[in-house]
Amino acid sequence: MSVISIDKDVQALTLTFVAEFDASVERVWRLWEDPRQLERWWGPPTWPATFEQHDFVVGGWSRYHMTGPEGEKSRGWWTITAIDAPHRLEFDDGFAGEDGEPVDTMAPTHGTVSLEAVDGRTRMTVVSKFVDAEQLEQMAELGMEEGMRLAMGQIDAILAETR
C-alpha cells in the first residue's frame, strides 16, 4: 500500500495524504505532468478520470471528468498556481459544470504536492486546503479521503510498468 498516512486537521483546514513509491522523484513527477499518466490514477478505480485539457504551466488550466460505474460524469478543473519541477506543484481545484466551466456551488480547494527522495524511494505529500471547516466536512462526506486513498493506490502499478 503506497499511502502511509492520512491526516484530517480541522483547525488547519487541511487534509494531508502521504504516500511512498519505489521510483525516483522525477518518475513520480511525470505522473502529475503527463495527462495520460495522470488520468490512470486521478480518481478511484470505479471513477476513472479523463483529462480533456492539461496545460501544465503556472496559470495553466486542467479540465477533466471522472466517469462513474453507471456512466455518470463528475467534472472538475485545476488552475496551476506554482511549479518547481520536480519537487513541488500547487493548484486550485474545483467542480465544473457540463460545459467544463467552473461552477460556484462550492469554493475551490488549494492543493500542494511535494515530492522528496527518502531512502531511495519518493515520498509524495499532497495537502488539500479548505476555505472553512464546513467545506472540509462536505468534502469528507463526498468521500474525498477514501477516493484519494484508492486513487493513489493505483500508482504502484503504473510505476511497475515502466521500470
Q: Radius of gyration in whole Å, from Cα?
A: 15 Å
Strand order of the largest sheet: 1-2-8-7-6-5-4-3
What is the number of beta strands? 8
Work out the strand percent: 35-45%
State the CATH topology.
Alpha-D-Glucose-1,6-Bisphosphate, Chain A, domain 4
Q: State the separation between the terminal residues, measured CA to CA.
A: 18 Å
CATH architecture: 2-Layer Sandwich
Count of helical stretches: 5
Going by CATH, the homologous superfamily would be START domain
How would the global form be characterised? globular
Decide which structural class fits the backbone. Answer: alpha+beta
Q: How much is the average pLDDT?
A: 94
Number of domains: 1
What is the share of helical residues? 10-25%
List low-confidence stretches. none
Query: What's the CATH first level?
Result: Alpha Beta
The main β sheet shows up as: 8 strands, antiparallel
InterPro entries: ASHA1/2-like_C, START-like_dom_sf
Pfam families: AHSA1 (PF08327)
Domain Activator of Hsp90 ATPase homologue 1/2-like C-terminal: 22-159
Family: Belongs to the AHA1 family.
Note down, in words, how this protein is organized.
It is a single chain. By secondary structure, the protein is of the alpha+beta class. Helices cover 23% and strands 42% of the residues. It has a single domain (3-11, 34-157), classed as Alpha-D-Glucose-1,6-Bisphosphate, Chain A, domain 4 (2-Layer Sandwich). It starts with a strand and ends with a helix.
Tags for this entry?
Activator of HSP90 ATPase; 8 strands; Alpha-D-Glucose-1,6-Bisphosphate, Chain A, domain 4; START-like_dom_sf; 8-stranded antiparallel β-sheet; ASHA1/2-like_C; 5 helices; 163 residues
